[in-house]
Amino acid sequence: MIMQSSAPAKIILCGEHAVVYDSPAIAIPVSELKTIAKLEEADDHFKIILENTQETLTESDRHPFIYLVKEMYNSSRLPKIQISVVSTIPISSGLGSGASVASAIALLLGQVLCFDYAQINEFVFHAEKHFHGQPSGIDNTVIVYQKPVYFRRNQPMTFIEAHTTLHFLIADTGTPAPTKQAVALVRSLYEADRVGVPQILARITDLVERARIQISDGNLSELGKILTENHGQLQQLSLSTPLLDQLVNVSLEHGALGAKLSGGGMGGNMIALVQPQEIEPVRKAMLDAGAKNVYHTKLEGRINDYAH
Ligand code: PMV
User: Fold this and answer.
1) 12 CA to centre of ligand 1 in angstroms
2) What pLDDT score was predicted for residue 305?
3) Mean pLDDT of successive 10-residue stretches along the chain, which has 308 residues
4) Which of 193, 223, 260, 262 is the most exposed place for a label (fewest CB within 10 A)?
5) Atom number of ligand 1 nearest to Cα 132
6) What pLDDT does residue 1 have?
7) Domain ranges of the chain
């Protein structure tokens, strides 16, 4: 018996950090980068083989993925199975690599143990807590459901549909994104300035609401402006870096409709909304400015569906 599952990477379009304070955020799956998990019977004992790092985890390991599996089986005794995991998602770049691996494992076992998506999402959220402390839950939600999501903590999630296809370039700075540290930094700014920081968060909320409308209406130039404005708010929260700012600037100079850092910041990645004809010039400009890797992803629009 061999079973298989796959889980994508993700990017946050807007609303990161504010989402930790119960504001909404929008995230989309990135199916061009993914994790594949395979399940086979094992002769000896339970194991997870992480092929990228050549690590093997067993029942006695104190590891979030082992906790996840034990929680799903509701037992600390695990069956004789082997789960092999391979991922094309760069680690620590704000693309949700950890959540994607946990999701691929949970989606695989979800088939065996007959869990639905909501239950699988909850299991992955718990695993995320072992990695990140207090995550908002946006990463696991967009990755488990593999759909664009308008997310607000403790609220029913809403999937969103784009009117026209949106193209994004994702530039990885190559500097690890210290998400936990970035969340802690915003928390300390928030504690120190209970007037100014909530104002910034409120402006981000407003941008997210506007972005949701522009995505649905297909108004790409307005959406681009909103994304770039969101970068400005994240800069005010000290989350950008000279390289992230430089990548945003060169993207805009080479025709991107909007650009911003994405995810935790202080490293990690940035995204640019581009028209198809700008993909190559913007990609080149990003690489020339120091991006380690550039990925293209798209959010299919619903008008394409009408064409069938
Ligand atoms: O995992 P990252 O780096 O994409 O960051 C997650 C987004 C934050 O809003 C900064 C944190 C969270 O838990 O939502």
Assistant:
1) 8
2) 45
3) 92 97 97 97 94 95 96 94 97 93 98 97 93 88 97 93 97 93 96 98 98 97 98 98 98 98 96 98 98 97 58
4) 193
5) 13
6) 63
7) 2-159, 166-307
Q: Which residues contact 25 (CB under 8 A, 6 or more apart)?
A: 12, 13, 14, 15, 16, 18, 19, 136, 138, 150, 151, 152, 208
Which residues lie with the beta carbon below 6 Å from any ligand 1 atom?
Answer: 12, 16-17, 19-20, 94, 135-136, 138-139, 177, 179, 182-183, 263-264, 268
Predicted TM-score (pTM) of the model is 0.95
- Taking the centre of ligand 1 as the mean of its atom positions, its distance from the CA of residue 88, in whole angstroms, is 20
The CATH topology of domain 166-307 is Alpha-Beta Plaits (3.30.70)
Q: Architecture of 2-159 per CATH?
A: 2-Layer Sandwich (3.30)
Q: What's the gap in Å between 214 CA and the centre of ligand 1?
A: 23
Provide the pLDDT for residue 255: 98
- The number of CA neighbours under 13 Å toward the Cβ of 10 is 31
Instruction: Give backbone dihedrals phi and psi of 2, rounded to 5 degrees, phi first.
Output: -125, 125
